[in-house]
Amino acid sequence: MADTALPAVRRERLRIAIQKKGRLGEPARALLSACGLAWRETPDRLFCHADNAPVDLLLVRDDDIPRLLLEGHCEWGIVGRNVLGEQLARVREQGAEPAVREERALGFGGCRLSIAVPTALPWNGVADLAGQRIATSHPALLRAWLAERGIAAGVVTLSGSVEIAPGLGQADAVCDLVSSGATLAANRLRPVEDLLASEAVLAVGAAPLDPAREATASTLRRRIDCVLRARDRRLLVFRARRDALPGLMSLLTDVEAPTVCPTEDGDSVSLQALWHGQMPWQRLEALERAGARGLMVLPVERMLA
Length: 305
Ligand code: PRT
Ligand code: ZN
Description:
Blueprint: E1 14-19, H1 25-34, E2 47-49, E3 55-60, H2 65-70, E4 76-80, H3 81-93, E5 100-105, E6 111-118, E7 133-136, H4 139-148, E8 154-157, E9 173-178, H5 182-186, E10 189-198, E11 200-205, H6 211-230, E12 233-241, H7 245-250, E13 256-262, E14 268-276, H8 281-289, E15 293-299
Parallel strand pairs: 1-3, 1-4, 7-8, 7-9
Antiparallel strand pairs: 2-3, 4-11, 5-11, 6-9, 6-10, 12-14, 12-15, 13-14
Helix pairs in contact: 3-4
The structure holds phosphoribosyl ATP and zinc ion.
Zinc ion binds next to loops.
């Protein structure tokens, strides 16, 4: 995308590139919206302004995000670690040190970049890759990984449908993204080595921001942390008679921040605690048997430190 394709922007607005469509587009929008940003999108526009903050969104293909950051067209990007890592590895191959870095992992879009070989063939270790042709859409990451291990293998760069390359005789193995493993299995391949554990990350340019944009960035950074901290947490709330408290507390040794508050009648207490992950039914039933009443498990939306 040429410089001129981007509309003129007021420099003090923080520009964040996200994937327009695809796997990371919706979760990235959900994260920014949970951080309080509101904006309207029109299908044909790559650029939109937040209505309630000095932030502009660039809606682009994920592969464009690292370059937009490197060229200074935006200050933040939400992109897979694999895509960022690949583009940064390409810059390093040119002998330069990229001025972009991963600032935070964002907890969605998880997958692995793995080497996979035909299921029918034996696998004795990475030395088996010597002299083989490996198809991938992450050639720079693969070349760096092979070089670190001193393995001379051919790298066949493909832009998509990597998993069918061995079946077509284009390659002997693949280096591709895997999440459930179903695609590899359907193509009679099995993962044997992981190059990278990937997820969506917040990527940022290395250049310091001007004070106005730094203020926006630091507010958003803090809000992202509050949203991520709350993610997957549940608030457990119930009341109980005071004499049931020791038994109940013995069932709550692994919860976060249990708090006991007296109620007005003096005989009862109300309790609340944080739980990480799904609350097992067995635990709720055990609490109920031990005297917990009015048990509620509530989602947590935001957690300030
Ligand atoms: O149009 P645009 O260029 O923006 O999007 P895209 O088509 O290049 O990317 P997209 O939307 O498919 O993926 C965006 C990002 O999601 C990737 O860069 C990864 O960071 C992340 N992600 C998470 C995945 C997967 N999981 C994933 N499973 N990206 C791709 N896959 C593919 C994989 O390539 C393989 O074909 O899904 C297949 C494997 O899935 P399983 O479940 O069968 O193992
Ligand atoms: Zn892409």
